[in-house]
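Backbones bend. We report:
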Amino acid sequence: MTIKGFGMGRKIVVATICSLFVVFALIVIQFYYFKYLLRRHRAMLYGLRTQVAPNVVNSTEPPKLGLDPLVIASLPKFAFKLSTQLDHLGEPVECSVCLTTIVEDAVVRLLPDCNHMFHVECIDMWLWSHTTCPICRTVPEPTGLA
C-alpha cells in the first residue's frame, strides 16, 4: 500500500535534484566562459593575438615597445635650478616616475610637448618601454632630428 501524497513528495525531490544539477552545470559553464574571456583579454592586452606578416613570425628580435633611442636623446636636458623652476603653486617639482623631489643641480629632462620634467635616468627608463609622458600620456615629439 502506498501512502497518499507520497508520490507527490518523490516528484518534488526528483525535481529539486534535477534543478540543482542544472544550476550546478550552469555555474560550471559560466566559470569556464569567464576563464576563456579573461585569457582572451590578457592575450589581447599583451599583443599575443596581433596579426603579423609571415616573414616576421620567425624573427628572433622582440618587438620594440618604447620610443626610438634617438628621439629620447633629442629631448632637452639641463641642470635643475630650484630658484627659477618651482611649479605653479610655488612648491618643489617632483619626478613622477620615482616620486622624489627634484633637487638643485640634478640633471633633468623636459618633455617639450607637455613641459613635464623628470630625472634623466627616470624618464629615459620610462621611455624605453613606453611612448608617452607618464603624467599626461602625450607622445613626445623629437626635437632637433632632421
About this structure: The chain has two domains: 6-56, 69-129. The helical segments are 6-45, 54-57, 69-74, 120-129. The chain is about 40% helix and 5% strand.
